[in-house]
C-alpha cells in the first residue's frame, strides 16, 4: 500500500511540473506566401529584406494553440515580412525583425479549441493584431550562424539555439500571454531556438523561397523552482528506497 501511495505522489508531482516546464513555442514560417524579398548572401554574411512570412504556429498555449495567418496589410492574405542581417565574423551586428498582422487562419470556419478564434472569426479572418506590428525582434549576436551554398544556385542560412529576442506586446496580449516587463511595445523573455532560410539565385543575389523561425518562451523562475523541487523530492525518495 505504501508503494502505491508513493508512486501516486511521484506521478502527481511530475504532472504538476510537466505543464510548468512546457515552453510555449511561436514558430513563424513561409506558409503559402510564396517567394519574396531581396537577399545578398556571401560566405560570411547574409542580408535579406522583405522576405515573405505567412503563418504563425503556436504550441503549448492552451486555447491559443493553433495556426494563424500573418498578413502584410491585406486582411486574410498571407505576406508579413522578415528583415535580417547576420555575420559569421561579427555577430554583434546581427539583427532580425518580423512585421505584420495576426489574423484567424483557415477560412474554413473550424475555429480553434476553446473558442480563441471562433468559427465566425476563422471564416472572416478576424484580425487579432493590427497590420504593421513588430511581431518579433532580435538585436545582437545570433548563436551558431552558418551560411552554406553562397555563390551557387541555392543558399541556406541556419542559426543555432539560445539567442535572446523580444516579442511584440500586442502579439502576446492577443495570445493571452503575460506582457509583464514589456517596454515600448516589446517584451523580452524569449529564445530564438532555430532559424533557417533557403534562397535561390546566383552570385550574391538571391530571393528567399522558404523560411522557418522558431522561438521558445524562457521558463519563469517559479516554473524552474517547481520543477527543481520535484526533482529533488523524487531523488530523495529513490535514495531512501535504495537504502531500505
Over the alpha carbons, how many angstroms does the gyration radius reach? 21 Å
Shape: globular
Number of domains: 1
Beta-strand share of residues: 35-45%
Contiguous uncertain segments of 5+ residues: 1-20, 221-239
Number of separate strands? 13
Count of helical segments? 4
Oligomer: single chain
Mean pLDDT: 82
What's a quick, concise take on this entry?
The protein contains four helices and 13 strands. With 244 residues, it is of the alpha+beta class.
Question: How is this structure best described in words?
Answer:
This protein is of the alpha+beta class. It has one domain (24-219). The protein has helices at residues 2-21, 119-124, 169-174, 221-243, and strands spanning 25-29, 36-41, 45-53, 55-59, 66-69, 80-87, 95-104, 127-139, 146-148, 154-159, 163-168, 186-202, 205-217. Helix 1 (2-21) runs antiparallel to helix 4. The protein is globular and about 50 Å long.
Key words describing this protein structure:
244 residues, 13-stranded antiparallel sheet, globular
Topology:
Layout: H1 2-21, E1 25-29, E2 36-41, E3 45-53, E4 55-59, E5 66-69, E6 80-87, E7 95-104, H2 119-124, E8 127-139, E9 146-148, E10 154-159, E11 163-168, H3 169-174, E12 186-202, E13 205-217, H4 221-243
Antiparallel strand pairs: 1-4, 1-13, 2-3, 2-13, 3-6, 4-5, 5-7, 6-7, 7-8, 8-11, 9-10, 10-12, 11-12, 12-13
Amino acid at each position: 500500500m505504501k508503494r502505491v501511495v508513493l508512486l501516486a505522489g511521484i506521478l502527481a508531482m511530475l504532472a504538476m511540473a510537466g505543464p510548468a516546464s512546457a515552453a510555449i513555442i511561436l514558430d513563424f514560417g513561409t506558409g503559402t506566401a510564396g517567394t519574396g524579398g531581396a537577399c545578398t548572401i556571401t560566405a560570411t554574411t547574409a542580408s535579406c529584406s522583405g522576405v515573405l512570412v505567412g503563418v504563425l504556429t503556436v504550441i503549448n498555449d492552451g486555447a491559443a494553440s493553433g495556426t494563424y495567418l500573418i498578413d502584410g496589410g491585406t486582411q486574410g492574405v498571407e505576406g508579413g515580412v522578415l528583415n535580417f542581417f547576420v555575420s559569421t565574423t561579427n555577430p554583434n551586428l546581427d539583427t532580425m525583425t518580423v512585421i505584420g498582422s495576426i489574423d484567424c487562419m483557415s477560412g474554413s470556419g473550424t475555429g480553434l479549441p476553446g473558442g480563441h478564434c471562433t468559427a465566425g472569426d476563422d471564416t472572416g479572418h478576424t484580425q487579432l493584431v493590427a497590420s504593421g506590428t513588430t511581431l518579433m525582434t532580435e538585436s545582437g549576436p545570433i548563436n551558431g550562424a552558418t551560411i552554406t551554398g553562397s555563390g551557387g544556385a541555392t543558399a541556406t542560412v541556419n542559426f543555432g539555439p539560445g539567442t535572446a529576442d523580444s516579442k511584440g506586446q500586442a502579439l502576446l496580449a492577443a495570445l493571452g500571454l503575460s506582457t509583464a516587463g514589456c517596454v515600448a511595445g516589446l517584451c523580452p523573455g524569449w529564445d530564438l531556438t532555430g532559424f533557417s532560410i533557403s534562397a535561390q539565385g546566383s552570385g550574391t543575389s538571391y530571393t528567399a523561397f522558404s523560411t522557418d523561425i522558431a522561438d521558445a518562451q524562457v521558463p519563469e523562475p517559479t516554473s524552474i523552482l517547481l520543477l527543481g523541487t520535484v526533482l529533488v523530492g523524487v531523488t530523495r525518495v529513490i535514495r531512501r528506497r535504495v537504502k531500505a
